[in-house]
Amino acid sequence: MKTMTSLQRVATVLDGRVPDRVPVGLHNFLMASRATGADLGDVLRDGEALAEAQLAAWREFRHDVIMHENGVHAEAEALGCGVLYQPGIAPHVEHPVVESIEDIDKLRVPDPEKAFPLNEVLEATRILAREIGGKVFINGRADQGPIALALALCGPERFLLWAAQPELRPHVLRLLQITSRMNIVYGESQIRAGAHGSCIGLAGTSLISPAMFDALELPFARAFGAAIRRAGGISFMHACGNETRLLEHLIQTGADCLELDPGTNAGVCKAATRGRTAVLGMLEPVHVLRNGTVDEVRQRATEILQIMAPQGGFIMGPGCALPPDTPSENIHEVMACARAAGRYASDGSLRGDGTPGA
């Protein structure tokens, strides 16, 4: 099979066809930022530094999908939350902005091009698109999805208590309309800045039931996907943890690609998603990619390729963000596995002969 560029390879998978080999996406913004040697908080607040961190990582690993963000706090900060930046770890919301039902109506969705730190992330997207946008797929991520962003704005306990009270449902839906709008305008801005696709992180069964997902998350997830496609991009939906029970609900979002953790049963996932949506992820970011040996990484990557890769539809990578101190040699091994064990035969099966590929 003819060797493809990274962009061609990913586009082929997302189009439901079989590429030359399995692509690799790296959710590595923390690892890439730390590798610059600068303070992590400084890099995550500076668009030029963010872009250079991702460019340096791409030059080293030559992965196929750049998963570009500065953490799951950016929209919450733009909406008024106090965010704590600390050396060596991802930023997080320290002070929620919605403390009462009345505060919901005070929220205003900002222009991402003007609101910090969204404007810095978008500047990084423009740099990445200019430098390598014709070679590699850029996933300009739109942060947390509707419920996850609402959890950040309110604090998890407050939002979940409100969501459980039927008499407060109109207020909860009003809040989710605002958070959904934030997702959409930011995702659309990512596409205009040059990203090929955008992603939101959905609330999974570790937080809510499938019934609550259908009532409160699914309509807004569908709206995000439709908006990204209208803007000319590809829609991704991220769900952490074991989402085997939620798979059908996630597929119903209409996402072009689901980002999933290895906690989700791989065999069930492959059967459910085949011909319906692509899957990105399935490698464990901490116990395997950060803490594992090169041999353990090779074993797990080979195992997941054998399950998820046949007939296409799969982009291999960490199921969630890589820790900042993930060893580079483990990521090089993921790439080596994709280039050898992830090569396709003409019938869509894996060649599996271990010969170095593209």
Topology:
Layout: H1 6-14, E1 25-26, H2 29-35, H3 40-44, H4 47-61, E2 65-68, H5 74-78, E3 82-84, E4 92-95, H6 101-104, H7 118-132, E5 137-140, H8 146-154, H9 156-163, H10 169-192, E6 197-202, H11 210-230, E7 234-239, H12 247-251, E8 257-260, H13 266-273, E9 278-283, H14 285-290, H15 294-308, E10 314-318, H16 328-340
Parallel strand pairs: 1-2, 2-5, 6-7, 7-8, 8-9, 9-10
Antiparallel strand pairs: 3-4
Short description:
The protein is α/β, with parallel strands linked by helices. It contains 16 helices and 10 strands. The protein has a single domain (6-340), classed as TIM Barrel.
Attribute tags:
TIM Barrel, 16 helices, 5-stranded parallel β-sheet, 3-stranded parallel β-sheet, globular, 358 residues, alpha/beta
Give a structural overview.
By secondary structure, the chain is an alpha/beta fold. The longest helix is centred in the middle third of the chain and has 24 residues, at 169-192. The relative contact order is 0.14. Strands 6-7-8-9-10 form a 5-stranded parallel sheet. The chain contains 16 helices and 10 strands. Helix 4 (47-61) runs parallel beside helix 7 (118-132) and helix 8 crosses helix 10 (169-192). Strand 7, helix 12 and strand 8 (257-260) form a beta-alpha-beta unit. It has helices at 6-14, 29-35, 40-44, 47-61, 74-78, 101-104, 118-132, 146-154, 156-163, 169-192, 210-230, 247-251, 266-273, 285-290, 294-308, 328-340, and strands at residues 25-26, 65-68, 82-84, 92-95, 137-140, 197-202, 234-239, 257-260, 278-283, 314-318. The chain has a single domain, classed as TIM Barrel (Alpha-Beta Barrel).
